[in-house]
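Worked problem 6 (solution included).
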Amino acid sequence: MNAPARLLAAPDPSFAAHRSTFGAFRTLPLDDLLRELEASALTGRGGAGFPVHRKLAAVARASAGGGAPAVVANGSEGEALSAKDATLLARSPHLVVDGILLCAAALGAKDLRLVVDERAAPAVRAALAERDDAFAILVAPARGGFTGGEASALVAGLDGRMAVPADRVVRLSERGLRRAPTLVQNVETLAHIALIARYGADWHRLVGAPGDPGTRLVTVSGTRSPVVREVAGGTAIRTVLRAAGEPDDRPVLVGGFHGAWLEPAALDAALSPDGLARHDASPGAGVLHVLPDGRCGLQATGDILAVLAAASTRQCGPCANGLPRLAELLRLLLAGQDVRGELHRVAGLVDGRGACHHPDGTVRMLRSALAVFSADADAHAHGRCLAREGVAA
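Solution. The predicted structure is:
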């Protein structure tokens, strides 16, 4: 796989290397920026995959009546299996800064925030100190763990409230940070915006598949230490795994903790929304996690489910009661009790009924595991574990 060096093209994170690699920074009027972003078909890289131009246009419309909007760059990276945002901020922080400034100039925003994990904060502050045009960007610490990176939770934390997702009636594009229209974009998304503003939509589409143009950052882990790769849109999962030195004959969790398990036969699917749709999966946060040899897939799912249940924001019954119950039922299955029927029943009660998408994402991951690891589930229901017995998944 020939990895296209775009986001990670600069030889080092300095401002001098950034300017030498990408050229001078320039802003675009709102209409021009929206036109290029729409033509580029860029979608958000934080997990939801929403068209970027539509979110920017919504904030612009909400701001038209007066009052400056806010721009929030999301580098919180609460997904445990992801390292792409931290890698981008360490290696190409100035592309992210360019993206923030571009959106701020186009929208007339004055309140600019960059939310990062504390481990990334020193590199980000060092990058901001190199520039004389980024003084308005305030660095804020990530809060709230796994669910704290959701857009409404992120804004709530910045406003001094509990960093939990909201059951939104009013969109953040209409009323967000300090009740102003607010644009929240993942840091990788903002870096892509900076490149598209420089080189145009046609350049962006030179790489990748027609339905998934450009590149995306992917964190690959499992049998080796996690690595972050920049890959062309639409690249087959199997190709990405091989390039990262991971096996392609094991089940893979695609998208992260709210993603879906795929069996080895499905790994020729493209790592794109269209390529994964028939597997009820998506690229999500750009995560590919291979089940290590000898590891029970059902046990791995149980460990993830326990984390997701503990991450409950306890705002609704499906989250406060349903997720812990699902985690308990999976523990019982692993201990030899055949509770598969009850697992499916409770999953059906939780799905689609939460105040946010946390319960839905958890159920999606669990259902994919029960399908991909059906033989393991059957063995555990009869007091056996295929992994302990050395039976290949």
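Discussion: The mean pLDDT is 92.
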